[in-house]
């Protein structure tokens, strides 16, 4: 059996959450292998690069949480409306800690972040597409994000909480249990085949937006990856 045929057969018998995971896993590999991700995870990202990432997160999650609130009562979009997951309050505290009380005047989105946030806002009219964006960010934060949390705390010498609250989900209880409940909420949605496929495609697009954002961060905060960059 050819690989494409095998993948199709697997997809046909998979739940929506399995599809989202399996059919984007290649894109996940690329995101994980990105120079910026690797620097973050290996503790070699300079502090300014980390702060720039927190700033971009602030603009992204502002869009995600705005749309989540707007769709709270929608039968599809409302399935992922978990206010206890929301990151903007934590990001605001992180930015005040990292940049000082006037941080709002000092932050701006990169062009790639602006485009990504615009796409998220666009899905306010397409709730299954919004779910794809929601899934890509929050399940990532609850998974690989928890590895990053430990490295970030150690690398930048943060005390408990301050500077990396973004990665702390202490209102959720057990994260594996929350993630299972999240996947069950996705699987309970009655999305037809075509809509599931479109949503998976949108999740792949979300990964591309993330990679673009990391590429721009990389360009604006060059990583010390070679001796030339080390000074
Ligand atoms: C340093 C970079 C990264 C590392 C080390 C990492 C690592 C991981 C790990 C270990 C898991 C759990 C896998 C499992 O359940 O078996 C995971 C899941 C996930 N990651 Fe990442 N990740 C990284 C970057 C990203 C990025 C940039 C995104 C998207 C913006 C992302 C989105 C996701 C999602 C959505 C899941 C959940 C998959 C699912 O169970 O459906 N990750 N990641």
Ligand identities: protoporphyrin IX containing FE
Order of helices and strands: HHHHHHHHHHHH
The first-level CATH class name: Mainly Alpha
Strand content: under 5%
Please, how many helices? Answer: 12
Give the oligomeric state. single chain
Tally of domains: 1
Characterize the biggest β-sheet.
none
CATH architecture heading: Up-down Bundle
What is the overall pLDDT average? 92
CATH superfamily: Heme oxygenase-like
Instruction: Determine the CATH topology.
Output: Heme Oxygenase, Chain A
Going by helix content, strand content and strand pairing, the class is mainly alpha
Uncertain spans: 1-9, 227-231
Q: What is the terminal-to-terminal distance? A: 53 Å
Radius of gyration: 18 Å
Please state the overall shape, judged from the principal axes of the Cα atoms: globular
Number of strands: 0
Helix content: 55-70%
Could you explain how this protein is built, in words?
The protein is built from twelve helices and no strands. By secondary structure, it is mainly alpha-helical. It starts with a helix and ends in an 11-residue tail after the last helix. The chain binds protoporphyrin IX containing FE. Residues 20-21, 28, 31-32, 37, 40-41, 135-137, 139-140, 143-144, 147-148, 207, 210 line the site of protoporphyrin IX containing FE.
């Amino acid at each position: 059996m050819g690989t494409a045929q095998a993948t199709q057969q697997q997809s046909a018998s998979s739940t929506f959450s399995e599809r989202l995971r399996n059919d984007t896993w290649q894109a996940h590999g690329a995101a994980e292998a990105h120079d910026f991700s690797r620097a973050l995870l290996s503790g070699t990202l300079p502090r300014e690069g980390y702060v720039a990432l927190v700033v971009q997160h602030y603009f992204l999650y502002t869009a995600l949480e705005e749309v989540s609130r707007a769709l709270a009562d929608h039968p599809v979009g409302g399935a992922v409306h978990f206010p206890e997951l929301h990151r903007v309050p934590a990001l605001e505290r992180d930015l005040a800690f990292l940049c000082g009380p006037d941080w709002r005047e000092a932050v701006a989105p990169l062009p790639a972040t602006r485009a990504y946030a615009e796409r998220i806002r666009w899905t306010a009219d397409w709730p299954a597409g919004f779910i794809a964006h929601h899934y890509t960010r929050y399940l990532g934060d609850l998974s690989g994000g928890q590895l990053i949390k430990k490295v970030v705390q150690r690398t930048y010498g943060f005390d408990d909480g301050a500077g990396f609250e973004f990665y702390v989900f202490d209102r959720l209880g057990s994260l594996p249990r929350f993630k299972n409940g999240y996947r069950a909420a996705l699987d309970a949605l009655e999305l037809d085949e075509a809509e599931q496929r479109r949503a998976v495609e949108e999740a792949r697009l979300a990964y591309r937006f993330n990679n673009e954002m990391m590429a721009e961060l990389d360009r604006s905060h060059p990583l010390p990856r070679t001796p030339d960059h080390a000074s």
